[in-house]
Amino acid sequence: MASDGISPREFASRRRAALKAAAERGLKGLVVWSRGGNSVEAYGHVYYLTNFHSLFPIVAGDGPWVSRGHAALVLPVGGDPILVTDYLDDPEDRIAVKDVRVSLDVAEATVNAMKECGLLSGKVGLAGRDSLLHSAYERMEKVAGKTLKFAPADDIIDQLRWVKSEAELAMMRHAATVGVKWMKASMGAIAEGRTEGEIVGAGMRVLCANGGVQQDVAIASGPNAGNYFGSSGVPHWNSKRRLKKGDLVHCDQWGPVDGYYTDFARSTVVGAKPNGGQLELLQGSAGVVQHIIAHAKPGMTFGELWTLGAKWLLDNDLPSPLGKPEEGGNAFSLQFPCYGHSIGLGIDGPWLVKGAKEPVKENMVLGIEALVGRAKIGAANFEQDVIIKKKGNEILTRSCPTKWWG
Fold first, then answer.
1. Are 195 and 239 within 8 A, CB to CB?
2. DSSP code string of 287-299
3. Cα dist. 377→113, 280, 331, 374, 389 in Å?
4. What is the pLDDT of residues 356-385, one digit of tens each?
5. Angle at CA 282, nearest 5°, toward 383 and 210?
6. How many Å apart are CA 159 and CA 164, to the nearest integer?
7. Which of 242, 257, 292, 302 has the fewest C-beta atoms under 10 angstroms from its C-beta?
């Protein structure tokens, strides 16, 4: 029995769709590989097809242990799926695949399953770009006794995940509802004398109590407000410096709630009374995001969404996030030159980047965002989660206030 609002029938339908696309490419089947443990950024492909996530952490090891913390799904065209995992503790009966095999050597067990399904020869697709370690791949070839020639197939699963089903949209709405509670707790904790760590802690308590876990929290303040993160160490927030009245603070939070992501940002000033320069950034970061959302529609490209943002900032005499640091640019924006991305079982593509050709489709869910700054003032961050609709986009995070200042 599957859980979390996605039926066993829908998981089976997803696998059929993946195999249909594989067959159209002349593939005999697919091997889908994901990592597990607490590395929630790379579980999506196997989770999408099976409702399973390996609970064992990623560990350093040789021989049979090189793939601990990973899971593989072997999908033969015309055959039944086989899920291989290194750890199984399933009190909720969640897994949507009947044939589940547990082995401390995931690489070996995956090769054995491939052999059983006739996938050790011929053209087989591999969807595991984000998680298959070279050491695990070498182990698979050693067990197989031959060179394994996989065809890249991540895009097959990627494109299935782009457009959400009605059940997935319900999960995304739920994740956003929890995300709003999380953000309200974090923003409500911003006060003179507190640290970024204390603010993050206040939010995390609410998130965890409501079925969520963070992938990360990007909070920066005061003299570091021009940065995306408050610390370049681990964790990524500053737990030492105490906030001062008048500090600009921006907070971006993302992670899964029952598997599906919430991801959005808000900004404010300690004491809620921004000066003129701070107010320009607070209003500007919200304004550019609102402009993109208002004009985004099916049939556009992701590159056209990027152009909407870039032109709005130019027309409103605001610095481009991609500008030089002395013009208001910052290290984050120069390394993340976009106005957002898809979300679902992760921080996904397509991305709102210059020239992107991918089509915007109905029932895609996007995190549309902008970090807008000026030299010597800092930066403000704003992001909304949005379901793309033919008529009137649905802003999932609308109930979280845009203004956290007076």
1. yes
2. HHHHHHHHH--TT
3. 58, 10, 15, 6, 37
4. 999 999 999 999 999 999 888 999 999 999
5. 40
6. 10
7. 242
